[in-house]
Design goal:
Strand order of the largest sheet: 1-2
Order of helices and strands: EEHHHHHHHHHH
Helix content: 55-70%
CATH superfamily of the largest domain: Tetracycline Repressor, domain 2
CATH topology of the largest domain: Tetracycline Repressor, domain 2
Number of strands: 2
Number of domains: 2
Number of helices: 10
Largest sheet: 2 strands, antiparallel
Length: 192
């Protein structure tokens, strides 16, 4: 879940040169606060304090708290999509099963990020932006599911309808797992 750290800029502070945090360092600090204390604890001021800066520096990189949290949610979606699509077996049925296992494992390993990226923690994120990134980033996964549907003899003209219905189910799944089955998930995590 961590991005690449790039060379940062420097700025004079009380006569001395001091490194200035870049986007990646700001996101890492926000992620750390969110995972440890909950996403509501992530504020511009708290992130700045964690980095040893004042709030105005962060506004050079991010518009507001929603902008930071949206970027973290997008990173989560991209990480999940990459995880689901890596080194899949050629057989569509085996690939779909492996993707389901990886999805479940990702959800259990990254509970806080998972809640954030699905807008379930009551904090502001740009859901349209996160959703559009998710839609585009899951193309490889959708291709595997499409191949599986065809292999299972789905009618050719129904495959697109089934894909749309499956996508809607995938969008509803996070809310179902975290709202309806919170104890089952906790118990499942203990056995994994």
């Amino acid at each position: 879940m961590r991005g690449c750290v790039t060379e940062g800029k420097t700025r004079r502070s009380r006569g001395a040169l001091r490194r200035v945090a870049g986007r990646e360092q700001i996101l890492a600090a926000a992620r750390s606060i969110g995972v440890r204390m909950g996403w509501k604890a992530v504020t511009i001021r708290a992130v700045a304090r964690r980095l040893g800066y004042t709030s105005p520096l962060l506004y050079e990189h991010f518009r507001d708290k929603e902008d930071i949290l949206t970027q973290l949610a997008i990173e989560g979606q991209l990480c999940l999509a990459k995880e689901l699509a890596k080194e899949l077996p050629k057989a569509p049925d085996a690939a779909v099963l492996l993707m389901v296992e990886r999805y479940w494992s990702f959800m259990l390993r990254n509970k806080q990020i998972y809640q954030l990226m699905n807008g379930m923690d009551g904090v502001p994120i740009d859901r349209k932006k996160v959703g559009s990134i998710a839609l585009g980033s899951f193309e490889a996964t959708k291709a595997v599911v499409r191949a599986w549907l065809i292999e299972e003899n789905a009618e050719a003209d129904r495959v697109d309808v089934l894909m749309d219905e499956l996508w809607l189910c995938c969008m509803a799944w996070p809310r179902f797992t975290w709202i309806v089955l919170p104890h089952s998930i906790s118990d499942a995590h203990k056995t994994v």
